[in-house]
Amino acid sequence: MSAAPLLAALLARALPGLVARDLGLPLGALLPWLPGTRAGIADAAALDPAERALLGRFRQQGRPLLGLDPVADAEPDPAWEAARDRVAWTPVAAPVPGASLTLVVGGAGEAPLPEGLGRILFVVGREDAPERLDLLLSELRLAEVFDRLGAAAASLAGPGWQLGGRRLSARHASLLLLAPPPGHIPDLLLPAAAMPHDLAELGGPEGLPLGGVRQLRLLPGALLPRRWRLRLNFTGAEPGPAGLFLDGLRVPARAVPGGLVASIETPAGRAPVLGLAWRDGAPPGLRLVTLEGWP
Amino acid sequence: MDRPPLLMVSPLPPARNGIADYAAALLPGLAAHYDCAAAGEDWLAEAPAGIPVVDMALAHRLPGEGRRRLYQIGNNPGHGFVLQALRARPGVTVLHDPGLLHLYESTGEDRATILAGMRHAVPGLAATYARQLREHGLSTRANHLLFDLAGEVLARSRAVIVHSRFARRRLRLTHGEAATAHVEVIPHLLPPGRPPARAEARARLGIGAGEFLVVTAGFASLAKRLDWVLAALEGLPALRWIHAGEVPAALTGRIGSRSHVTGHLPGDEFDAHIAAADVLVNLRFPSTGESSGSLARALAAGTCCIVSRTGAFAELPGEAVLHLPLAGGARALAEALAALAAAPERARAIGAAGRAHAEAEMALPAVAARYRAAIGAAEGRPPPAAEPPTLLRLAADRVLIAAALDGRSGPCRLRLELDDPAALAALSLAPGGLAEALLPPGAELRGVRLEGRGLLLDLQLPA
Description:
The complex is a heterodimer.
Chain A: H1 4-14, E1 19-22, E2 38-39, H2 49-56, E3 59-60, E4 63-64, H3 70-74, H4 78-82, E5 86-90, E6 101-105, E7 117-126, E8 129-138, H5 139-156, E9 162-167, E10 172-179, E11 188-191, E12 208-209, E13 215-218, E14 227-235, E15 243-246, E16 249-251, E17 254-256, E18 259-265, E19 274-277, E20 287-294
Parallel strand pairs in A: 1-2, 1-5, 5-6, 7-10
Antiparallel strand pairs in A: 3-4, 6-8, 7-8, 9-10, 11-20, 12-20, 13-19, 14-18, 14-20, 15-16, 15-19, 17-18
Helix pairs in contact in A: 1-5
Chain B: E1 5-9, H1 18-30, E2 35-40, E3 53-55, E4 68-73, H2 80-88, E5 92-95, H3 101-106, H4 111-121, H5 123-136, H6 141-146, H7 151-156, E6 159-162, H8 165-179, E7 183-185, H9 198-205, E8 213-217, H10 226-234, E9 240-244, H11 249-256, E10 260-261, H12 267-276, E11 279-282, H13 293-301, E12 304-308, E13 322-324, H14 329-342, H15 344-361, H16 364-379, E14 390-395, H17 398-405, E15 410-417, H18 421-428, H19 433-438, E16 444-451, E17 454-461
Helix pairs in contact in B: 1-16, 4-5, 9-12, 10-14, 13-15, 14-15
């Protein structure tokens, strides 16, 4: 889903204050590009059991990933509930309960929409590899949201971009936003505590506390499949002799003042799992603050 | 050469675990036949060069997903993740110790699963011993000899490899011919590399040319009978004794008063102690059929070994080791040591014969070829029976359950909805426990686990 960074930018501009849920794991296409997005799985029962067990290890802000624990899913989520624009990203062609806007990857199909629902058909991404999504929303909000998206698209588009769209009816609209190759590939900047991870500690704006930790997994979400330069930024201490892992396999990494840098080839079709390991535990006081990446 | 992929699931060095050393030694041999990777809980574990180590939780993401799996299981908590992995996907299992009760007890397996395993292993005795465990929380050393808890590993594995005919016979006696038809014997493995020469090792450790050095090795479990060694050496003050390994705190004073206890040693130091020895005393009583990495190292070094005439050790050729009868324990050992100290050339001859035997039977290429044959044969077999599907969802009501199971036979799975956990807890405290409180006569409870808000029971129903 190479259009995800572009869509994230579009949504963030059009709908300031939006709260997002990405139910597309194990892909997690939206996750890296809208920090704070709550991660989940639309259909956990369909996952390979080993993948389900893996995702079951992660916590985000202390909560299991959505879709794995019905009890946790039912607990109040004040940020989500209070937001006007609650955006859910899903591969399942149906509105997500509780979401005011549902982005269906690949489109919601040709079946008639349920009463009261509108659709904005997106064609977005790279001009030589356009991608289709449907935004399902209340027909009462279609005009307003479409106008906002159109304005945001116009502000995003640069030279050589294709931009278009129209309202077909009160319930249907379309929006096209295509970038020339290599597409819209922004730099990555993720606060560590916003990412799903498998530590017992919650973490916060000051980072993830790692002192004494021997192994840690992070789920940043899907980076576009290409080579990325990554930098993990620490505070409180130098990380020392840490091992960096990509999907469970060690990758070469170099310690730099306050950080660890590596060049990785990210996989297609799924969110990579980043790992950190220390033979004798991470140094006391060490905190992981951010993950940065450059394509 | 296009080698098929193979994932070995095992602890690896630097884990203080003989099976970790074994796995690391075996991998280069297997790599001649397979594109190997190793999976474990320690991401920084040390595998031989060219063999990647993968986080077990992410092994399913490796390229070549669906690769054949080789599990290394021993009877200690370091192998809990291996058992979990086997539960998730069948493969070929190397059972280094046919008794697995300690593994189950020390890795948080619930008591119902252990009780079910005990009933499955020795139904006649389980009633008595399981009652002690259930009602008083008592689990004695006898439990570890009587109840091997290997039934699950046998059932879930495509093939099971053990290192002795004794281990296979033991499994067969307990679990029957059909459940063990896929158990094969592959001898233990010579450690990699050349051990140091005796003179070099003695010089390194400061052992005098005229000293007669007795070495015991590894973690000093009670079955290694260091009490016999201590008693035997009380009358032989001229003999020097080093224990190359750890000793439990309760024994430290007694053993330390006569021997030098090194604590855990890195591999090369460990090898040096064994190579420097005139005799490695490697006793076992009781033996559950376990194999010994220390013994393999001593055979490789050409060190004379004294072993108990029991279990896997009794299968070693008489000229390759010195067998000690179980009766007479310390006295027999004292006599044997005194005789060897008086005629050290005899110890050298036994050591040389031991090395010749090991090089013929336990060399890596030969052992790896046998693994390849066993793994290949396992692929041709039908996979182990899949877990029975969720058959019935019921309230925890004996009458409803009996009606639902009426007329059924064989394996079956039952999910009890926990509408009233307090009532279920009360039932589990009833005489005879949950099984007797809920199940019809003859239904055998094989496993219990919580799943969401339900209790999942794996049953074996009578024919």
